[in-house]
Amino acid sequence: MTATGTSRKSGLVRGAVSGLVAAGLALGVAELVAGAIGRSVAPAIVVGGAAIDRTPRWLKEFAIEQFGENDKRVLLAGIFVTVALLAAVVGAVATRFRRIGLAGAALLGLVAAAAALTRPQARPIDVVPSLVAALVAVAGLAFLLKDPTGQPDRSRRAVLVTAVLAAAAVASGVAGRSLQNLRTNVAASRKALKLPVPVRPAEALPDGAMLKVEGVSSFYTAPADFYRVDTALSVPRLTTDDWQLKIHGMVGKEITLDFGDLLARPIVEHDITMTCVSNEVGGNLLGTARWLGVELAPLLREAGVDPQSDQLVGTSVDGMTIGTPVSAVMDGRAAMLAIAMNGEPLLPEHGFPCRMVVPGLYGYVSATKWLVDLELSRFDAFDPYWVRRGWDQQAPIKTSSRIDTPRPLARVKPGKVAVAGVAWAQQRGISQVEVRVDGGSWQKTRLSTAVNDDLWRQWVWEWDAPSGSHTLQVRAVDGEGDIQIEDRAEPFPNGSSGWQSIVVTVA
Ligand SMILES: Nc1nc2c(c(=O)[nH]1)N[C@H]1C(S)=C(S)[C@@H](COP(=O)(O)O)O[C@H]1N2
Ligand SMILES: [Mo]
């Protein structure tokens, strides 16, 4: 290779490295600015949020299937890899075409600023971190590329400057994150929250409410194991001090509550199994908890609901909107503003400090996390987030059942095998669960003792398993005598249906 060839190549490498360092510094400083203004609007977060809202359904489903609860981490990693590639290209281009490269760096920051403005709860100030990032990226890149290479002492200095700026990038990013933690200390707020004693505690668990069968889902789902489904790329940070709930719209009088007002109201407790509409047949997007909170119906009665209002729209601090039938909230079921689950304040990812819970309805039409606003409206006047994306306006939970043990494709020994799982039909309750082997006759299973109709029930059937490959199938009957729907349906647009079927090998 000729001498010019080598130096051109090393110039491009230096340009790419400079682009990466300038981008890192820009993102780090942006974190710091986001922390200083106390808004969760760092460039990667707003770009990621905008991407989530525009992701087509097939891609969202693919991501959840492939990455499950890691889908957000994968998206963020993808954004950082993309930014890194773009930054390297921009830096390399800048070594040859200075102006075009610098314009490219500025453009990346402007795209993030535009994304910040499209976020649902955006304020004008939210563009500041991305604009600062654009400035830092341009200035950093220009600075790093200033000295021409060639002289050995200069190039040594260039390496040093690059290293210092790279370190500054990491330091500012870390400092920005700590500043955000310090400004809204959710952990401290959670720790300081003393849970009130309920005036109406949860129903006592009768004997036999939990079957002691190995491999069955535990009756209560530990908060840390509870499925998480939301569009929040970074968990919204809200303390009890910052929290406020406004009840307005089609009401006689508006009500605004702070957290103290909430705690001062009568507190109730109720065990509820919550379910996501995206749960596939046999899936695990559901969980059971003991919920503690404030009854919603008396609060709405105080506000005076206009009889013409049929939709209650909850809005979260990050702008999610969820619409619930007013009739469901007012019909006597345990619809509540929950503040605790299983005896602990809500975890930040499950909506701390306050979320809605309405038994019998899928989460996307009932369970607003980080709830800050309740508006009485009409179904024909407002479409919430998921409805705008084609999901049904109203979605009661379908009767369903799941085999927890044996696992699909498991190998088991011939002889006595406990086939067991859970079944749910919130609001209607479960009256029977049946199992069949290889399409034979349906066998009644033994059920755990019912606690309330909003909870799943565990079931078990003792199988005398003969050798060979066998298909096990399950179906439930709800409290009204209706058999679980046999026809297979995908979750979209109102929840999956169909009897789960698994194959096991007995050998
Ligand atoms: N703010 C907010 N609340 C939300 C959502 C969301 O994306 N943002 N997702 C809903 C959906 S689809 C479900 S199934 C439940 C899940 O609650 P969990 O994550 O605590 O299990 O929250 C609901 N509340
Ligand atoms: Mo959901």
Account of the 3D structure:
The protein is an alpha+beta fold. The chain is built from 12 helices and 19 strands. The strands form 4 sheets. It has a 5-stranded mixed β-sheet with strand order 2-1-10-5-6. Strands 3, 4, 7, 8 and 9 form a 5-stranded antiparallel β-sheet that branches. The site of molybdenum atom (MO) has 7 residues, from loops.
Q: In percent, how helical is the residue content?
A: 25-40%
Bound molecules: ligand MTE, molybdenum atom
Number of domains: 3
Radius of gyration, in angstroms, nearest whole number: 28 Å
The largest sheet is: 5 strands, mixed
Gross geometry: globular
Domain Oxidoreductase molybdopterin-binding: 233-380
Organism: Kineosporia mesophila
Transmembrane segments: 12-30, 74-94, 100-118, 125-145, 157-175
Protein name: Sulfite oxidase
Detail the topology: elements first, then pairings.
Blueprint: H1 3-37, H2 43-54, H3 57-67, H4 71-96, H5 98-118, H6 128-144, H7 152-183, H8 186-192, E1 244-249, E2 255-258, H9 259-264, E3 267-275, E4 286-295, H10 296-303, E5 311-316, E6 321-325, H11 326-330, E7 336-341, E8 344-345, E9 355-357, E10 371-377, H12 385-388, E11 400-405, E12 411-412, E13 415-424, E14 430-437, E15 443-444, E16 446-447, E17 457-465, E18 468-478, E19 501-506
Parallel strand pairs: 1-10, 12-19
Antiparallel strand pairs: 1-2, 3-4, 4-7, 5-6, 5-10, 7-8, 7-9, 11-13, 13-17, 14-15, 14-18, 16-17, 18-19
Helix pairs in contact: 1-4, 1-6, 1-7, 2-4, 2-5, 4-5, 5-6
The chain binds ligand MTE and molybdenum atom (MO).
Ligand MTE is lined by residues 226-232, 276, 316, 320, 350, 363-364, 367-370.
Organism: Kineosporia mesophila
Protein name: Sulfite oxidase
InterPro entries: Ig_E-set, OxRdtase_Mopterin-bd_dom, OxRdtase_Mopterin-bd_sf
